[in-house]
Amino acid sequence: MAGIYIHIPFCKQACHYCNFFFSTSLKLKNDLISALILEIELQKNFLSGEMVETIYFGGGTPSLLSEKDLDEIFNQIQKHFTISSDPEITLEANPDDLNADNISILKNSPVNRLSIGIQSFHEADLKYMNRAHNAIEASDCIEKVQSAGFENLNIDLIYGTPGLSDELWLENLNKFHENKITHLSAYALTVEESTALDHFIKTGKSQALNDEQARSQMILLMDFMRHSGYEHYEVSNFALPGKRSRHNSSYWKGAAYLGLGPAAHSHQSNFRQWNIANNAKYIQSIKTGKVPMEREILSEIQQYNEFLMVSLRTVWGIDLKIIEERFGKEKLEDLLLNSIPFQNSGKMIQNQGVLKLNPTGMLEADRITAELFLD
Amino acid sequence: MKNYRNFCIIAHIDHGKSTLADRLLESTKTVSSRDLQEQTLDNMDLERERGITIKSHAIQMDFEHGKDKYVFNLIDTPGHVDFSYEVSRSIAACEGALLLVDATQGIQAQTISNLYLAMDHDLEIIPIINKVDMDGAMIEEVADQIIDLIGVNREDIIEASGKTGVGVDLIFDAIINRIPCPKGDPEEPLQALIFDSMFNSYRGVIAYFRIFNGKIKKGDKIKFVNTGNEYFADEVGILRMDMEPRATVGAGDVGYLITGIKESQMIKVGDTITIKENPCEQAIDGFEDVKPMVFAGLYPIDSDDFEDLRESLGKLQLNDASLTYEPETSLALGFGFRCGFLGMLHLEIVQERLDREFDMAVITTVPQVSYDCFTTRKEHIVIHTPSDLPDPSMIERIEEPYIKAQIISKPEFTGGIMSLCIDKRGFLTNQVYLSETRVELSFEIPLAEIVFDFYDKLKSISKGYASFDYHIIGMRPGKLVKLDILLNGEKVDALSAMIHRDKAESFGRKMCKKLRELINRQQFVIAIQAAIGSKIVARETISAFRKDVTAKCYGGDISRKRKLLEKQKKGKKRMRQVGNVEVPQQAFLAVLKLDD
User: Would the pTM of this model clear 0.90, i.e. be above it?
Assistant: First the structure.
């Protein structure tokens, strides 16, 4: 089981909170797609012939891709990789790109799952985040893609923004639910370093985020989703039965994946690597037949910490047998010992060979994970 | 002996003492300019960096004047109030002093107090205005200050530049013609003053001395008059660029002595060396067993490093006899040492040397002075740490050290300086105009009040102009109490402080506020309280933590996220646990950074 991630590093405008790699100048777009096509060939052996189960177009804004771009990329992938008979192929789209023409292009392509960056159905919220779309586009696009036949659908929502009261947050969740969307990624707004939001807060132009609000809105979210029949299968992700994101799940299960395009990350057994986060340098290097990347070989401790980190974020938790097999009995014993305070306080549960977080533990997943890390 | 000249240089920090010294060494060919590392006399990196002399040094130079040959002994002195005793001993070893004043800055308080010391010892003062080549030089104004201060004639003041070499010849002439040669009798019993000592890891403690009477030979059985310790003189010699052994060093000269002693405390600065079989009748005046004035706990950042810290302090003490340390334990900080220092700069130097020379980062607790506590049962207890204080009901009175502080500044800052000193429980004892633009204010202030942020405040009130010097004048009773800090009801011993009753409340409020900024929110509400005995005088609350969840975790994020959490975990390791509250290390230094 393996996945392919394709990073499309262009956006029409920069959202104030975003620290992903992208450029708002489309000047290099054609050169970049050509380079991407070349990189697919250069990296054809990365997955060592493993069957590709999932393909994910992330960004940036993959909905900026033209029909021709998509065709070329798919043809090239098919040429160099073995695709399973039932792949999950997701494309991240922005509401303002989802007009009738684009939807039909996507529908006629192999893409079978959309992930729409709605973030909020409220106009003030969208303005605050500097999204490219408005509230009407946010509502309309869902209906459009559903009627075009995209049933396997995710939307992103963000909570914890200063203007978002609990009532408004519930309105967003209701809107999601009314539309019978199969999957939700819900994120607490986070101030990442060197983003516009970070700058605004530091200079007093924006108010600082309220932790209590983020916490209570996450609790609201978890309650709402449970009552609505969604499974909370990862800290930020909820799905109807059978509708989990197979691609993202593979990240959390430690599967191999190949990232293509600038700043894309790849993973293979004991190492991670990432391409250079610069469009011009990426294009230049690929032209000379070299993938511009950095690689990090993971030590056993790092592998252990990673395994803990991703497992604890998920509903399937830490498989204790894997800990023992991969890292030894001693580490297993230490882990169980160190988890006792969290079990006692009801934040963790150990059951049938699995150690995992309860919903209250999910609220503090990062802290608990850090405390269970090895040095 | 008539061709010997022993002198020191009195100067404020940065007034060019070391540069001038280098110039003298070069002119006398004691050191070639090729070998002349800038500012030869300041051996320690730390001294070079801060531009101050921490330890004294001495160096001998040959100088030919016409057909006469002269021997100069230049004794360099430390340049900070914390080391005023060492300065006084260096001065006592000389017949003359070069008073060096920066032409762009004028006389500073430090200079004046050392100058008075030199005048008390009847030293011949040679006033020099240095840096006359610089743009901002105010030669006549500075000359007036000097004339007012020591009553010399204008033509006796030398204008010089250590940088260009202007005036250096005049300085040599003055040294020869104005500084008297040493008096003393080579046939009398040995009487030599130890004005400094240093530690060498191969040779042990090296004592620097000035012989007033008699002579010292290699192999002599010697005796230190004040401590009574007796040793053999394994090696004696004079101080050139390196130590040069001699069979004998005689009256009037400056030299060194090696006895093989390994513990620096065994040889005390100010003590008198004599010969056991033929001792001098009396010791040289002015010996003091210098006691540390400021105390603070030093704790290893990683509690596993306790033994390493002990070893490092031991090594530091070898060449810093004024540093004292003894083990203590703190509930909050674990095992550490209660250390005694001459003053705040000394504390800083020790901290910095631990870090630089031993790679040993430490947490320092609230520094405090040494108090005398008299109990109702007529006991006398010396308080080096707040926890030494007996129950309040047992205390009859507490006495604290007072200093006489001299501050020199511009008249326009007098008001601000007075308010600062009064706020620090001081009172004005004297006010003298040194010139139209310089006023000297004398205060008596509790030493405890200058331990915290006094110097910084003085500098900011006077826009950097004020200079400051002090000396201890004795112990006086004061209304002192112990202020405790509690976190969720648990006393944090490392944050307790001795403080004047009238200031305890506002101090407590500031502490609580500062701690609220420094302690992170946790899973529960944290109450920060300041208390005198059982009475709570201030309180702040830190509300409970928050989610810390849900930064997204996409594929690419995994390495970054793992590193983020690893960092979080490391940060946590550096936390100290008080009850159930995690306290970051900088909280223990909070008290030093209290602002109004």
Answer: no
